[in-house]
Amino acid sequence: MADLTQEDRDRLRYMTETDWVAACLNSDWDAAVALCTGDVDYMPADLPWLHGRAEVKDFLNNFPELVDFSQRVVATTGDTSLAVIHATFGGTFVVEGQQVTGDGKVLATARRDDGSWHFSSVCWNWNAPPAPSN
After folding, report:
1. Mean pLDDT, the chain, as a whole number?
2. Cα 71 from chain centroid?
């Protein structure tokens, strides 16, 4: 299999840093899960493993309101059918009326299906427990 092209890398970066972030900031969970394969494996920090778009959407429907959120791709490797994405994230969200800030890391895979890239697995965790913002 051929290595990722620059076009592939650019698309995967855009999906991670722009498409996913915009969907999350807008609480547009339909748009978020549309970026995933139907059989996506999603592993949120400190919670059970989720499988498939419906389980991921149910989880996201209960996610706290995001006030600020960003992701930055650190590395992308793979070939023209499967890619591995290493990224960092930071964000502020609202829990029980209080803003909480945290940052962490993401390890994701993306699979090319019918010519388009979709996240096939996402695993993320916090660098430290989120703390209230001042």
Report:
1. 94
2. 8
Q: Which residues of 6-43 are buried (b: 16+ CB within 10 A; e: fewer)?
A: eebbebbbebbbebbbebbeeeebeebbebbbeebbbb
- 3-state secondary structure at position 14: helix
pLDDT for the residue numbered 7: 95
Sorted by where each starts, the structural domains of the chain and their CATH numbers stand as 6-132 (3.10.450.50)
0.70 exceeded by pTM: yes
Which residue is it, tokens 């139907």?
Answer: 38
> How far are the Cα atoms of 100, 109, 110, 124 from residue 86, in angstroms, in the given order?
24, 9, 11, 10
Q: What is the distance between the alpha carbons of residues 12 and 19, in angstroms, rounded to a whole number?
A: 10
- What does the pLDDT average to over 106-133? 90
Contact 126, 45 (CB under 8 A): yes
Note the pLDDT of residue 131: 67
